[in-house]
Design goal:
The chain is of the alpha/beta class and about 150 residues long. Helices cover about 35% and strands about 20% of the residues.
């Protein structure tokens, strides 16, 4: 969380996705089902959101909590959720509205610090960000990369 705080102090916009996003969402009172979550950072996430330059997902895609996911997962299709993820489900990727919004933010950026994909990209139904973010992200002049794309 320390790096997120530093980035929020220095960057015009910080997009938060992946597992970290669910703690930010919980700090807004959203239901996150059984998504990855760290309760010890809820207060810090709320403070970072109050600055106004942090963008988090507005929708999600996921699976029932008991479903396997990743490279060895089955063929179960991802389920789309709005801002709230019901109990018994886990958010594992950003939804289509978030992917579109994130791509718009990235298209306007001159520099991107990229720290990996937003979803479980090894699982075909869970790579919304991987598909939609890459094409528009290539329009920028500079990119500093991390993680796999």
């Amino acid at each position: 969380m320390a790096i997120a705080k530093v980035l929020c102090e220095k960057a015009d916009t910080v997009i938060v996705g992946g597992g970290m996003a669910y703690t930010f969402e919980a700090s807004l009172g959203r239901s996150i089902g059984s998504s990855l979550f760290d309760p010890s950072y809820v207060e810090q996430c709320a403070q970072l959101l109050s600055v106004g330059n942090v963008v988090i997902p507005t929708d999600a895609r996921g699976l029932p909590s008991t479903s396997p996911f990743g490279p060895d997962a089955g063929e179960e299709p991802a389920i789309s959720f709005g801002a709230d993820i019901p109990d018994g489900f886990a958010g594992l990727d950003i939804g289509p509205a978030s992917a579109e919004h994130f791509a718009e933010v990235i298209a306007k950026a001159a520099t991107i610090l990229w720290n990996g994909p937003m979803g479980v990209f090894e699982d075909a139904p869970l790579r919304q960000w991987h598909r939609s973010g890459r094409a528009r992200g290539r329009q920028v002049r500079r990119r500093v990369g991390g993680g796999r794309r």
